Amino acid sequence: MKVLIGSPGTVSGLMLRLGQCLFAGASIALMVSAAGFSSYTAFCYLIASMGLQVLWSLGLGFLDIYALRMKRDLHSPVLISLFVVGDWVTATLSLAAACSSAGVTVLFARDVGFCRSYPQLECSKYEISIVLAFMTWLLIAISSLVMFWLLASV
Amino acid sequence: MKVLIGSPGTVSGLMLRLGQCLFAGASIALMVSAAGFSSYTAFCYLIASMGLQVLWSLGLGFLDIYALRMKRDLHSPVLISLFVVGDWVTATLSLAAACSSAGVTVLFARDVGFCRSYPQLECSKYEISIVLAFMTWLLIAISSLVMFWLLASV
Questions:
Q1: From CA B147, how far away is CA A119, in angstroms rounded?
Q2: Assuming Cys at both sites, which of A53, A114, B21, B97 could form a disulfide with B49, CB separation 3.0 to 4.6 Å?
Q3: What residue stretches are annotated with the Casparian strip membrane protein domain (chains A, B) (predicted)?
């Protein structure tokens, strides 16, 4: 099996996982700190989805560290299949969460003007949290493509 | 290059493309027929994204018909690369559009109760249109995975 940039058990793979954890964690922290987020299903779903992403990426990050320290090879077809399924599921959920929250925020900011009418809605925090969620998705999408490529080119 | 179910230039590939056109077209028709959709950015974006999907899938559908009638093989790496990029871009846009519209509809139906308060909002039409958009995404996701698998296993 080939080794690509972002493969499991490599330094670049570990960097990708750490980046995913970092952005997802920052997205959760900002959303939780914004007043009134819990009244909106989309924002709660964003937190749940980013939480799942943190758990998944953290788990694979620890696996990368273990593989790097012990010089183990994680390129077995069974392991890669598992990574592919997990990466694709979390990537799809992250994109769905980021987009549904973005839809609601655009509605608040532009379509119905709630951000101007209700200053207690912390729209700028919502927006930054969503941008961070999109960045998380971008990183997990890269991981997913690398894993799928590895699996398909066995 | 292998030939899989859903490969370009096969009957199953043509069926997938026709299904994508059908669901995307139905999603657009329902959304356009719902009163007041144009006031909401997410719903306008859904129509634009589904329109792009119809154009892309129709184009590839015609190419499949041509290949089937003329018995041409569409499995060249250059063509498959082109299909992969187009399929992934339209699949991502379709999922993003379906999710952002779903976020707004859930907000209307559950979080702020606009569907009950304003009967002129045709929430059930929005919902069916979004379900059709998700079905379009499911079909284009299958096409995308098949194309990527074909490209990676060259």
A1: 48
A2: B97
A3: 7-139
Among B39, B101, B148, the residue with its CB nearest the CB of A103 is B101
Q: Which two tokens stand for residue A24?
A: 């997802």
Reported pTM: 0.93
Please list every residue in chain A whose beta carbon sits closer than 8 Å to the beta carbon of residue B103. Answer: 41-42, 99-104
Nearest to B100 among A39, A102, A110 (CB): A102
Alpha helix (H) residue ranges in chain B: 11-33, 41-70, 77-106, 114-117, 123-152
Phi, psi of B56 (to 5 degrees): -65, -50
CB–CB of A95 and B96 under 8 A? yes
Question: For chain B, what are the domain ranges?
Answer: 11-152
Report residue B61 as tokens. Answer: 């559908």
B95-116, pLDDT tens digit by residue?
999 999 999 999 999 999 999 9
Dihedral sign for Cα atoms in the order A32, A34, A39, A40: negative
